[in-house]
Amino acid sequence: MAQPSDLERDLQLLETELRKLEAEYNMFFAGRLPKPPWETRSRVQALVKRLDRAYIQNYGDRFRFTNLQTRLATFSELWERGMRAREEGRAGPFGQPPSAESFKKADRVLHVAAFRDPLKETAKLHDLYDRLVDARRSVGEEGVPFHKFAELVKGQVLRFRRSGADQVAFRLSVRDGRVNFTAKGVRRSEEKVE
After folding, report:
1. What is the pLDDT of residue 47?
2. Is residue 70 classed as helix, strand or coil in its secondary structure?
3. pLDDT number for residue 3
4. Residue 48 burial (CB count, 10 A)
5. Confidence of residue 19 (pLDDT cuts 50, 70, 90)
6. What is the pLDDT of residue 36?
7. Could you give the residue ranges of the DSSP H alpha helices within the chain?
8. What pLDDT sits at residue 100?
9. How far apart are CA 97 and CA 36, in angstroms?
10. How many CB atoms lie within 10 A of CB 78?
11. What are the sequence ranges of the domains in the chain?
């Protein structure tokens, strides 16, 4: 069996390095590498330059080298577009699915309840209280005594009813790892929450 020539060894090395560079860029855009693989890329580009300057007599070797050179150029363009998109804050060609952090930052509505008179709607009041306590415990906060919670709800209902609301909608949500409990007055034309 004949020994591979220097040119064949260089072409094999170029193929290997190009696959390695592609894998490193994929890891970079996936967030597994902290910085782009500049060293590997410069090593591949130097090898391509050296082979481009050399005289390749065999048409098969010339074809193989041209394919590798074209592949590098195509990947380089794709990586540059990806870098530009990342710098501009867009998804770009390497768009990522939403991460767990983006779900944490978004409002997660846990429960909504509307009251006309909380003293007559005790079952609904207890349900809202239980959900609030569960939500607070899930984020590491302490629960609130029921009597204080009931006073808060009753006070908010009275305040909104005085300003003309027919009922008051309470919304329990989690945002940025904190529990939010908000109230909103609802007039008859807006009633949709029960």
Report:
1. 95
2. helix
3. 64
4. 18
5. very high
6. 92
7. 6-30, 38-53, 59-88, 100-105, 122-138, 146-162
8. 54
9. 20
10. 16
11. 6-94, 100-190
